Amino acid sequence: QVQLVESGGGLVQIGGSLRLSCAASGRTVSTSSHYAMGWFRQAPGKEREFVVAIKWFGSNTRYADSVKGRFTISRDNSKNTVYLQMNSLKPEDTAVYYCAARRDLLVDPLHSAAAEYDYWGKGTLVTVSS
To answer: Is the pLDDT of residue 106 over 90?
Structure first.
């Protein structure tokens, strides 16, 4: 069982930056289980969409085209925390951002489908406005 808690959301102007954090806890985290971590977002009336994911094995990453070059995912395993640095924010980035996790194997690909992830945080709201 993994518990995920997001933080760092807020109101930011167009072109601004924000860093989100996702803290993981639970027995499987404490016993050093391996998980791929992902960020998804959902705007009102829209489907939850993939933003970025990072594997535990090799720390390979996969980004949605809409955020490539602007967002950066990173993780600090010693702190059981994953981060999402968001730069050059646009109004279309406005959404609730969710942290997600799935058990990772060496040969597994990075998944972009929300259904592939087993654990979810409650989300943090990011609003980008002029």
So the answer is: no
